[in-house]
Amino acid sequence: MAPQLRTPLCDLLGIEVPIMQAGMGGVAYGRLAAAVSNAGGLGSIGGIDIPLEEVDAEIRLFRSLSDGPLCVDLGFPANAPQGLDDVEVPPLPGPLRQLKRELDEHGVELAPTHDQAISLADNKRKLEISLDHGVEVIACGLGTPRWVVDLCHERGAKVMSIVGQAKHARSAIRNGTDVVIVQGTEGGGHSGDVGLITLLAEVLEFATVPVVAAGGLVKGDQIAACLTMGAQGAWVGTRFLASTEAGSEDVFKEAVVDAEYDSTLRSLLFDGLYVRMLRNRFTEVWEGHEDELSPYPVQRVLTMPFKYAAMKANLKSHMSLPSGAGAGMIIDIPGAAEILERLVTETVEALRSVGKTVQFG
Ligand SMILES: Cc1cc2nc3c(=O)[nH]c(=O)nc-3n(C[C@H](O)[C@H](O)[C@H](O)COP(=O)(O)O)c2cc1C
What we know:
Blueprint lengths: L7 H6 L5 E3 L8 H9 L4 E4 L5 H14 L4 E6 L18 H12 L14 H13 L4 E5 L4 H9 L3 E6 L2 H9 L4 E5 L5 E2 L5 H9 L6 E4 L5 H10 L3 E4 L1 H4 L8 H9 L5 E4 L7 E4 L2 H4 L13 H15 L23 H17 L9
Parallel strand pairs: 1-9, 2-3, 3-4, 4-5, 5-6, 6-8, 8-9
Antiparallel strand pairs: 7-11, 10-11
Helix pairs in contact: 2-3, 3-5, 4-13, 9-14
Bound molecules: flavin mononucleotide (FMN).
């Protein structure tokens, strides 16, 4: 039994411990979210990458497994097209032609994909589906428009905004968000270039809503440091990616366990926005070819068939493997409840020993 750990955020979100499992495309589905919420944290479904029907099905699955609160993570980037057909796609650039040759050698065929992530219309529908199910919390990556906050509040849901820069925290607060999640450059997936400890201090200076820390957090000692600074909780991705309930492929989980401190990089190669991911052939082919990158969302439309083809073939060397810099410290693949319990225990132990080596006066 883990010791108790509460902050005012727990009352705001109806959770027992202030640790949240992050929304992650291809990783965070109903089963993982339920395991985390049942253990007292907040579980999330990564709703950006999956089709509408799957958002619906995963929320239903969660509700069948847990009575706890649920977060659905969605995206409303300002420059997103209404639909995929609005994106003009150029011919394949050199690095992708090279990847195609390599996939051919492995007998892996590119398949046309219907990418759900970038259509604003689809994301609006996913928000409606989530609110119809009474989802308690909506997390917004890549911008928090006021209409999203207003709609969520009307329907009784709280809003959390994931930001990588202080100015984005300011605008999310102006638009009425309930919680700001500051994600340092250490974070997996989309991440800015400011380190967590700096960004957290910066945002805590002006934030009028609870602030949650994210990015590279895989141990309670790190969470304790953030709570000591004034954060009210932690949003944890990669640590939960390497868990038994995560929907990530086994080879992906193993790649996280095998990762070392320098195994991740931040690159525009995935979708034209900076994403932290594990180095492999999928990233290596772009080295020295950065001038061939396209802006968001064109780059995403170009790389998506490669991502899905490698995933389907379980070809780890060519898969897209978003991961935080904390992967180097992950050495096992336990159940999500055990991960949560370890994080809570470590956080409490670290908080209890704060200042033990410090001498005053
Ligand atoms: C595999 C993976 C997929 C992710 N997918 C999404 C996503 O679809 N939407 C989103 O807002 N953030 C996404 N993220 C970012 C997470 O929500 C979270 O902010 C991040 O994982 C925190 O950093 P950490 O992984 O170092 O703990 C993803 C992260 C990972 C590792």
